[in-house]
Structure to design on (295 residues):
């Protein structure tokens, strides 16, 4: 069999078109959704991500501003900026770009975010509301994965879902979201990682397999159940002298062998990545919509 290649880029473009209409309607009420992105240090990959987010905002009509801080920024200086943005009525969402340089205390940073502006969904309040079964802002990558499944007509209810990777950005919130007793959930979820004993036997039992552990080509075809849906979250650089950049991007899944077993699979790039950005925009629009209710 040959797997359906899930077009995350195309689905993300569809979502952005829908959001453009919502932004236009908010504009008629005198509200322009606003997103502030904070970038600390000079990480080149982060700079590219931030530029891409700014461009995406512009295309749907969201106001965005990027606040760039030096590598030497202290935890308290960053908190002071966040507190300033928390108070601004024209800023509905705040995103702190990761990774943050040491010794900045990430826990203090995300605790200082207003829960109503935490559009990246990574504050203790946002993550805690998932456990309560009443998510406010869902972390963007898990939200993008759930949106992909929904738009493809793949219902997790009653299925076995295996999430490989336990980060607070993806694995932990996604596992809990899939287990929630609600539409888009009700799966039987196993959360594991690269050191889980007998990992291959666990992944081979998954109807829906999500690889989010950050290790290139870790999940191979023989680890996948025939007909499973495979969602590859990984974005890894591997050396490739045959390319102009001397490297290529690969996921956590060995794509070629997985395609022969899975019924559907996300490519890297062009799968989950575009959905993550689309969900950031969607959360920002939602935050702006909630600001209408506060007036």
């Amino acid at each position: 069999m040959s797997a359906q290649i899930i077009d995350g880029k195309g689905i993300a473009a569809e979502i952005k078109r829908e959001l453009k209409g919502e932004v236009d309607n908010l504009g008629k009420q005198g509200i322009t959704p606003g997103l502030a992105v904070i970038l600390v240090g000079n990480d080149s990959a982060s700079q590219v991500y931030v530029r891409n987010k700014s461009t995406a905002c512009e295309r749907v009509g969201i106001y965005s501003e990027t606040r760039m801080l030096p590598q030497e920024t202290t935890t308290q200086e960053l908190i002071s900026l966040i507190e300033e943005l928390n108070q601004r009525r024209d800023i509905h969402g705040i995103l702190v770009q990761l990774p943050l340089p040491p010794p900045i205390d990430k826990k203090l940073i995300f605790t200082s975010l207003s829960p109503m502006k935490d559009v990246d969904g990574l504050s203790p309040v946002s993550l805690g509301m998932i456990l309560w079964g009443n998510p406010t802002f869902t972390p963007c990558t898990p939200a993008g994965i759930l949106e992909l499944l929904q738009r493809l007509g793949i219902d997790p209810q009653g299925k076995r879902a295996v999430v490989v990777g336990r980060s607070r950005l993806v694995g932990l919130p996604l596992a809990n979201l899939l287990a929630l007793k609600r539409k888009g959930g009700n799966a039987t979820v196993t959360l594991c990682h690269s050191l889980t004993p007998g990992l291959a036997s666990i992944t081979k039992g998954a109807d829906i397999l999500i690889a989010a552990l950050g290790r290139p080509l870790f999940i191979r075809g023989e680890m996948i159940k025939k007909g499973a849906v495979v969602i590859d979250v990984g974005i890894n650089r591997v050396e490739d002298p045959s390319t102009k950049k001397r490297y290529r991007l690969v996921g956590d899944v060995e794509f070629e062998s997985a395609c022969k077993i899975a019924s559907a699979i996300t490519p890297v790039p062009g799968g989950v990545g575009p959905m993550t950005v689309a969900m950031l925009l969607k959360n920002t629009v939602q935050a702006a919509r909630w600001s209408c209710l506060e007036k």
User: Anything to note?
Assistant: The first strand starts at residue 4 and ends at 5. The chain has a mean pLDDT of 95. Residues 56 and 64 are 10 Å apart (CA to CA). The chain has two domains: 30-115, 140-273.
